């Protein structure tokens, strides 16, 4: 698709979304699927359940079990077979009561023929997002004009092999570009998770943030933590007032503090499990959550996590609650439910929206500067700061933890794999947002052509 045709396709998608949304609300008719929901020349739709039975589509793929990706998927689904990972299959059958006859879990990391696709294979790759999430690498010929778009591919019937990498939602890492299914191959279209395709969202690598949270929780519960230095290098006086340093407290006081501190982590219905596990393992304690959340966790193939779960809230030093619970008044009421076992609480609120760039940051730097600056930033427990309204009894920490790629990681990913076109899939609802993202894609393309490096050298196997 040429740049002109792509622009026209976006305009068509905008118009179709607006008209079909109003029409579907008024008449109950089917919404038309925008072009980026159906693979060009293939009878395959990805995360497109809100559009019902799409013309020419023989296979419906689901990247993961988050509601914005499975909208309208329910027990009455009958539009066609659903392909996904094993964990995602378990989750949608349990949570949405989808009839299992429609759900086809696929193996990870090996090519699988997609039935009735004209010879297309798909390889599932761990997305590093939430449990069950995956990228789909599709390889095969264009055989059909499927979907609602008026723009048709000239390659249908040509026999040429096309490769499409659909990222769904993902946290980009070196492991994605080094995967045998991707490495050394040219990708025709990358359908990219552009949630944070904005230079102000360069938050720290996920492994460093997880480690920092586990270490901070351990220090707070043991009574060792006396607060992080402020910008002038001085200790945070508020934190000093909260915690008694170990060299000024006898063992009895420290034991009392340790025994009575509850750690609470806010999560989505699916996601953030890694940070919960890391904290529980650091504290050598169990994890408690309500029955519905526990059932969702048990849909996941994670024996290590399952072994940490308990139905007794007083046995667990780590509790899992909805993200919205990590505010002072709700946490104060929550810990009161366990009076006699816990008298204080520390809450962690992990979300990428917590991150704010340093004041004076250049938001349009050269690609080389984006990479060098991103790789030079460390992150430890000392970088986690207490939120407003934190007190001795109720401490709260905003954690710059996301399961979407940061801008820095998107840049590293784009500079480390061979692609011909990137199609944004998030924040595409208006022309201004798309144009802003397109400028970065153009800069990646130019810099990649000029670069002598095949990929950005990672700091570790799992992050750049």
Automatic annotation (TrEMBL):
InterPro entries: DRMBL, RibonucZ/Hydroxyglut_hydro
GO biological process terms held by the UniProt record: double-strand break repair via nonhomologous end joining; interstrand cross-link repair
Keywords: DNA damage, DNA repair, Nucleus
SUPFAM superfamilies per record: Metallo-hydrolase/oxidoreductase
Origin: domain of life: Eukaryota
CDD domains xrefs: SNM1A-1C-like_MBL-fold (cd16273)
GO molecular function, one term: 5'-3' DNA exonuclease activity
Location relative to the cell: Nucleus
Pfam families: DRMBL
DNA repair metallo-beta-lactamase domain location: 303-430
Cellular component annotations (GO), alphabetically ordered: nucleus
Family the entry assigns: Belongs to the DNA repair metallo-beta-lactamase (DRMBL) family.
Record's protein name: DRMBL-domain-containing protein
